[in-house]
């Protein structure tokens, strides 16, 4: 297949979106249509199954092309919103063709030659990319790290104990579909949820989850690793350490799936090197770029997934100094796992690269 070279519109960089038809890719096209437009031409790429499909971005209908080496001709920045194995194979191809690859998958996150970037926390790391690849963190880490980065600046983080409340869409479109189906199955029976096993029988096959998610919480996300940890829990530990540049940070995570469509929440116990104070911590969070503080429990004001879904910031509330440790804070955070947790952070990284390729005159 031959693909016409892409003309650089107004000298601005050309962007490829690989995986434009997926759950994250769909949100990406929405985000590219609403953020300040730094891009010249945009090329949409997916599997051969989707070739020829037409999708709208920036108000313009574009045809999806199949992934191939030629699809990267003339591309300056290539975002990858595809499964790990597709990124592992094709991000290096894009980089070899001269593009900077910004990868949303888990394929390169812990590679020492690939920076793991959250622009509010470590934007400068994006410039050090010996493989021409930059990684985007996983959605659970991203849902808390912007707020924790601001607190780390103020107090120096030493330890994190985290419990997540993760949405079904973290398991992609199949996760969303399964939760909706399960909710439909249980909603008509007012007696369910009173006898062990009744929800499990009503739901039947739990789909991508290891237990019913409707009327339930499931203490599992990802695959089994040594010592009984889940892959998701280890990602929170390893990726937080890498982003914050704290290789010895103590991190214990328990990842739990809850019956929410989109938006991950986390309860965090954070221990710092110095004593903390509730009001100053609230001030630090309120001033931090990308963070919104909603913390007025007397008036029942705190973030919840139902209020946060579809928004860009990390929302923080329930900020308290720990009763038994003056160096520790307790917080509750919510972030949309498909926006800041995936597409938005990738778009922000790509914008950092675009500014580097085309510095403002
Ligand atoms: N869901 C989340 O909360 C979340 C958060 C952070 C990161 N991520 C990561 O983002 C990536 C995408 O996730 P998703 O939830 O958007 O998945 P998804 O809905 O399954 O979409 C996958 C995309 O990859 C494309 N694709 C699959 N196989 C391909 C191949 N062989 N060649 C070219 N394109 C191929 C698909 O194209 P077709 O439509 O043509 O099949 C589709 O566009 C994954 O690595 C995931 O781990 C997801």
Task: List key phrases describing it.
single chain; about 350 residues; alpha/beta; Rossmann fold; Dihydrodipicolinate Reductase, domain 2; six-stranded parallel sheet; six-stranded mixed sheet; about 30% helix; binds NADP nicotinamide-adenine-dinucleotide phosphate; Asp_semialdehyde_DH; methionine biosynthesis; Aspartate-semialdehyde dehydrogenase
Description:
- It is a single chain.
- With 361 residues, the protein is an alpha/beta fold.
- It folds into 2 domains: 15-136 and 343-357, Rossmann fold (3-Layer(aba) Sandwich), CATH 3.40.50; 141-167 and 219-335, Dihydrodipicolinate Reductase, domain 2, CATH 3.30.360.
- Helices cover 32% and strands 21% of the residues.
- It has a 6-stranded parallel β-sheet with strand order 5-2-1-6-7-8, sandwiched between helices. A 6-stranded mixed β-sheet has the order 10-9-11-14-13-12.
- α3 links the parallel β7 (100-103) and β8 (133-135).
- The longest helix is centred in the C-terminal third of the chain and has 19 residues, at 339-357.
- NADP nicotinamide-adenine-dinucleotide phosphate binds next to α1, α2, α5 and α10.
- It comes from Motilibacter peucedani.
- Keywords: Amino-acid biosynthesis, Diaminopimelate biosynthesis, Lysine biosynthesis, Methionine biosynthesis, NADP, Oxidoreductase, Threonine biosynthesis.
């Amino acid at each position: 297949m031959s693909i016409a070279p892409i003309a650089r519109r107004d000298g601005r960089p050309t962007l490829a979106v690989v995986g434009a038809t997926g759950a994250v890719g769909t949100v990406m096209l929405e985000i590219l249509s609403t953020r300040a437009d730094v891009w010249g031409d945009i090329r949409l790429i997916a599997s051969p199954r989707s070739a020829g499909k037409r999708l709208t971005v920036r108000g313009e209908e574009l045809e999806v092309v199949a992934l191939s080496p030629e699809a990267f001709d003339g591309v300056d920045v290539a975002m990858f919103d595809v499964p790990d194995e597709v990124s592992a194979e094709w991000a290096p191809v894009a980089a070899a063709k001269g593009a900077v690859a910004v990868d949303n998958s888990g394929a390169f996150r812990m590679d020492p030659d690939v920076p793991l970037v959250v622009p509010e926390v470590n934007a400068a790391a994006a410039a050090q990319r010996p493989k021409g690849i930059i990684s985007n963190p996983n959605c659970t880490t991203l849902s808390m790290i912007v707020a924790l980065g601001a607190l780390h600046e103020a107090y120096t983080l030493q330890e994190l104990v985290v419990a997540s409340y993760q949405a079904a869409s973290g398991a992609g479109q199949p996760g969303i579909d399964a939760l909706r189906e399960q909710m439909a199955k249980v909603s008509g029976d007012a007696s369910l949820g009173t006898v062990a096993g009744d929800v499990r029988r009503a739901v039947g096959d739990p789909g991508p989850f290891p237990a019913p998610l409707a009327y339930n919480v499931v203490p599992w996300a990802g695959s089994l690793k040594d010592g009984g940890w889940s892959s998701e829990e280890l990602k929170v530990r390893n990726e937080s350490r890498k982003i914050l540049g704290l290789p010895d940070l103590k991190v214990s995570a328990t990842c739990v799936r809850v019956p929410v469509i989109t938006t991950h929440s986390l309860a965090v116990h954070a221990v710092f090197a110095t004593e903390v104070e509730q009001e100053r911590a609230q001030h630090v969070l309120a001033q931090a770029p990308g963070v919104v503080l909603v913390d007025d429990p007397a008036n029942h004001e705190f973030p919840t997934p139902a209020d946060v879904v579809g928004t860009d910031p990390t929302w923080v509330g329930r900020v308290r100094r720990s009763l038994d440790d003056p160096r520790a804070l307790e917080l509750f955070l919510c972030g949309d796992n498909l926006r800041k947790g995936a597409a938005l952070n990738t778009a922000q990284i790509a914008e950092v690269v675009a500014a580097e390729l085309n510095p403002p005159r």
